[in-house]
Structures are given as C-alpha cells and as structure tokens.
C-alpha cells in the first residue's frame, strides 16, 4: 500500500495492454457504425459516378460531424455517471481515468 497512491495499485502492463486493446475495439466499432450510417444516408446504392458528387460529400461531412459530436456527448455523460456511481460507493481513486492519472 502506497502513501501517495492512497492504497490504489498501479495497473500492470498486461492490464494497460488490455485497456488499450479495448479502446481500439471501441474506436473501430465507432468508425464502422459511422461509415455504415453516413453511407446509407448520403450515398445512393446505385453508383452513377466513380467519385462523390458535391452533395454527397457535403452530406457525408455533416453526417460525420454530427455522429462524432453525439458520440462525444454520450461518452461524457457516461463518464459523469460512472464517476457519480463510483463516488457514491466510496471507492478510492475512482475518477482516476484509464491509467490512473
């Protein structure tokens, strides 16, 4: 037990690797959902041209911005709720972030 760590153990390198891998999976999932959602909304299934036209490009840009904004807001709300729940349980160092910082 460390005086400065307030009893909280530092994550092992294996735990750090698992956390990063989980984060990478979440990012890949977010990208895949964004791609499917925005392509379905903005790009017609019957391709007429090899390149995106201006309307499709603008639609994809706006869709991407809205999707990422919504994802960020949801993440912030979930983080706040997680901190509130761990704060209510009295867990020491509950708001330490992914690597205890």
TrEMBL record:
GO cellular component, one term: mitochondrial inner membrane
Disordered: annotated span: 81-101
Domain Tim10-like residues, every copy: 17-80
Domain of life: Eukaryota
Keyword Zinc carried by entry: yes
UniProt feature coiled coil, ranges: none
An example molecular function term from Gene Ontology annotations: metal ion binding
Metal-binding as UniProt keyword: yes
Pfam assignment, any one: zf-Tim10_DDP
Entry keywords, A to Z: Chaperone, Disulfide bond, Membrane, Metal-binding, Mitochondrion, Mitochondrion inner membrane, Protein transport, Translocation, Transport, Zinc
Low complexity bias spans: 81-92
Subcellular location: Mitochondrion inner membrane
Membrane topology qualifier: Peripheral membrane protein
GO terms of biological process kind: protein insertion into mitochondrial inner membrane; protein transport
Domain notes: The twin CX3C motif contains 4 conserved Cys residues that form 2 disulfide bonds in the mitochondrial intermembrane space.
Family: Belongs to the small Tim family.
SUBUNIT field: Heterohexamer.
Function according to Swiss-Prot or TrEMBL: Mitochondrial intermembrane chaperone that participates in the import and insertion of some multi-pass transmembrane proteins into the mitochondrial inner membrane. Also required for the transfer of beta-barrel precursors from the TOM complex to the sorting and assembly machinery (SAM complex) of the outer membrane. Acts as a chaperone-like protein that protects the hydrophobic precursors from aggregation and guide them through the mitochondrial intermembrane space.
Designated name of the protein: Mitochondrial import inner membrane translocase subunit
Organism: Ophiocordyceps australis
Upper lineage: Eukaryota, Fungi, Dikarya, Ascomycota, Pezizomycotina
């Amino acid at each position: 037990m460390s005086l400065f760590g307030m009893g909280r153990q530092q994550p092992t390198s294996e735990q750090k690797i698992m956390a990063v891998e989980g984060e990478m999976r979440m990012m890949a999932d977010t990208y895949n959902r964004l791609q499917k959602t925005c392509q379905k909304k903005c790009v017609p299934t019957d391709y007429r041209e090899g390149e995106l036209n201006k309307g499709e490009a603008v639609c994809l840009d706006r869709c991407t911005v809205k999707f990422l904004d919504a994802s960020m807001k949801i993440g912030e709300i979930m983080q706040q709720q997680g901190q509130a729940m761990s704060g209510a349980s009295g867990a020491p160092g509950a708001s330490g972030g992914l690597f205890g910082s």
